[in-house]
Design brief:
Chain lengths: 115, 114
């Protein structure tokens, strides 16, 4: 069974703190993604990575950075957390092996609150 | 980024009824249109998906209808059940040579009442 895990389900941080969100997938997928999900705005792509040490900006990269040192792990970093980064963060990986469906598998999410 | 417009925002359907969620897209480069189902406290999970060379795809009670010329597609849930109560997202997707586009609709919260 495919699995994407995220290090924390709930996280509370203070403004200005550096925050690390970790994501691990066990499917040997090359492509991994970070989204944030906000009511009424749906899912918005922050960053994605198509290989180790490779990264591409998504729609809303400002205030975030990422790290992909190993294939199975993709980290999202909030350099200096702000209250407008309070959100649900979802990690995903995708199987692009060329099958009938390129399925994107999501983790359970991390609900981050910045006070 | 070009949008995928999803409607309605919320939907209440009686048990046994048909739930219909509509999406419209702008980007003709999309070559795959998935629907995701998300329960509270969980990440989205792929429900059903279609490619633009097909006009309809059915899996159990779930059917996608696709109209390429109108750039519209919809999800139909037949015989809706309370367990179908969730948020549904449509999306448009294309991928090639490291170039990736996946745009989600803003979601529809479905409530199926007994």
């Amino acid at each position: 069974d495919v699995k994407v895990t995220q290090s924390s389900r709930y996280l509370v941080k203070r403004t200005g703190e550096k925050v690390f969100l970790e994501c691990v997938q066990d499917m040997d997928h090359e492509n991994m993604f970070w989204y944030r999900q906000d009511p009424g705005l749906g899912l918005r792509l922050i960053y994605f990575s198509y290989d180790v040490k490779m990264k591409e900006k998504g729609d809303i990269p400002e205030g975030y950075s990422v790290s992909r040192e190993k294939k199975e792990r993709f980290s999202l970093i909030l350099e200096s957390a702000s209250t407008n980064q309070t959100s649900m963060y979802l990690c995903a990986s995708i199987d692009t092996s060329g099958g009938a469906t390129d399925t994107q598998y999501f983790g359970p999410g991390t609900r981050l609150t910045v006070l | 980024q070009q949008q995928v417009k999803q409607s309605p925002q919320s939907l209440i359907v009686q048990k046994g009824g048909i739930s219909i969620i509509n999406c419209a897209y702008e980007n003709t480069a999309f070559d795959y249109f998935p629907w995701y189902q998300q329960f509270p406290g969980k990440g989205p999970a792929l429900l059903i998906a279609i490619r633009p060379d097909v006009s309809e795809k059915k899996e159990g009670r779930f059917t996608i209808s696709f109209n390429k010329s109108a750039k519209q597609f919809s999800l139909h849930i037949m015989d809706s059940q309370p367990g179908d109560s969730a948020t549904y997202f449509c999306a448009g997707y294309s991928w090639g040579a490291g170039s990736y586009q996946l745009t989600f609709g803003k979601g529809t919260k479905l409530s199926v009442i007994p």
